[in-house]
């Protein structure tokens, strides 16, 4: 039995987006491959005993401070030392400065993997300081993983470690077909010829550009997610833009089944991969995304699985939406291509298998 310790700042039940979803997929997906997974994470209240989540375990230490997206905990050090003793591999998920400190302080004797999910974008003022910690950490771990070749090639941080970077794309499980009554309920509300965005309404998602493109084109747009637009300079929303609110996984699949295309206007490198694009590709939908030098253009290939446009450009976004609306046969071909690319590169079992091979490799090389 191989024991893996994942280390990241948030996890279930507080957060189940992005990196926590990747950790959960790995932990559950490797259970039947002889792997026992543990997750060390921070929470509002620490717990003395681990909590079972599916077939793996989460260990919560109290979050003492949260500043500039860097959660800190004094009690993490003792719990980390305890868990690291029985771990065969420690898997760090970045960016999170405390993970770097934990490794340099108490984790260097163990085989280690660092998945570099994203550069620091919003808090760039702290990057020169953090770099003094990050680069020694990356030199010490046994393996570095990027989730796409696009990100590895454009990250200034990874450029200094490129010879040691492996590419393992994020993978997700197969979709479950929505129930007919769910589809009919959403069809009655929005029809079946809308452009769909699904995701958290964060500063880097480009929603002002999508809403402006909808205003210019008059095409129907459905935005699935919280309607809190406080981070955006949006004064009025046209009638052809509809907010569904937060949706369940089942309702998300129903909306994906009904939409004519998926639109993903993220305009900053904070959007490091775009799991929502994988979900659209899995549903055989053509996609529109922006070229920001990250994994979004690894998932969505321009002219093959959808259209890729310049960021922050409502005119280009509206033009891409109009083209897909007026060329349904080409859009359908792109959706079929997206599905084939998903099957080839982005299945959860393939991601799990790749990491398992990497775990065995770092165990062997660390001993040497």
From TrEMBL:
Start and end residues of each Glycosyl transferase family domain? 182-341
**Domain Glycosyltransferase subfamily 4-like N-terminal intervals:** 18-172
Q: Name one GO molecular function term.
A: glycosyltransferase activity
Do you know which Pfam families this protein is assigned to? Answer: Glyco_transf_4, Glycos_transf_1
Which keywords annotate this record? Transferase
Question: Could you name the domain of life of the organism this protein comes from?
Answer: Bacteria
What name appears for this protein in its UniProt entry?
A: Glycosyltransferase
Among InterPro entries, the record links this protein to: Glyco_trans_1 (IPR001296), Glyco_trans_4-like_N (IPR028098), Glycosyltransferase_grp1 (IPR050194)
């Amino acid at each position: 039995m191989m024991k893996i310790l994942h280390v990241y700042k948030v996890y279930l039940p507080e957060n189940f987006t992005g990196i926590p979803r990747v950790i959960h997929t790995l932990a559950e997906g490797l259970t039947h491959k002889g792997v026992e997974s543990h997750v060390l994470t921070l929470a509002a209240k620490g717990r003395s005993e681990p909590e079972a989540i599916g077939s793996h375990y989460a260990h919560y230490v109290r979050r003492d401070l949260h500043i500039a997206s860097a959660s800190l905990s004094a009690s993490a050090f003792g719990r980390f030392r305890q868990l690291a003793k029985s771990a065969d591999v420690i898997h760090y998920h970045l960016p999170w400065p405390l993970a770097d400190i934990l490794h340099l302080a108490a984790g260097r004797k163990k085989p280690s993997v660092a998945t570099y999910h994203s550069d620091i974008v919003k808090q760039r003022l702290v990057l020169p300081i953090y770099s003094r910690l990050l680069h020694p950490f990356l030199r010490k771990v046994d393996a570095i993983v990027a989730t796409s070749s696009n990100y590895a090639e454009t990250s200034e941080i990874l450029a200094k470690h490129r010879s040691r970077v492996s590419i393992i794309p994020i993978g997700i499980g197969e979709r479950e077909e929505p129930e007919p009554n769910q589809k009919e309920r959403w069809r009655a509300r929005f029809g079946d010829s809308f452009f769909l965005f699904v995701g958290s309404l964060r500063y880097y998602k480009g929603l002002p550009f999508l809403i402006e493109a909808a205003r210019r084109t008059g095409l129907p747009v459905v935005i699935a997610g919280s309607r809190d637009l406080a981070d955006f300079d949006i004064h009025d929303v046209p009638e052809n833009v509809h907010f569904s609110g937060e949706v369940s996984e089942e309702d998300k699949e129903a909306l994906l089944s009904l939409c004519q295309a998926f639109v993903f206007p993220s305009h900053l490198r904070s959007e490091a991969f775009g799991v929502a694009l994988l979900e659209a590709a899995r549903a055989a939908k053509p996609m529109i995304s922006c070229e920001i030098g990250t994994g979004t253009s690894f998932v969505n290939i321009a002219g093959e699985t959808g259209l890729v446009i310049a960021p922050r450009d409502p005119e280009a976004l509206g033009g891409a939406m109009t083209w897909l609306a007026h060329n349904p046969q080409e859009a359908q071909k792109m959706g079929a291509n997206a599905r084939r690319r998903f099957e080839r590169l982005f299945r959860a079992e393939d991601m799990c298998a790749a990491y398992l091979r990497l775990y065995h490799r770092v165990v062997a090389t660390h001993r040497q």
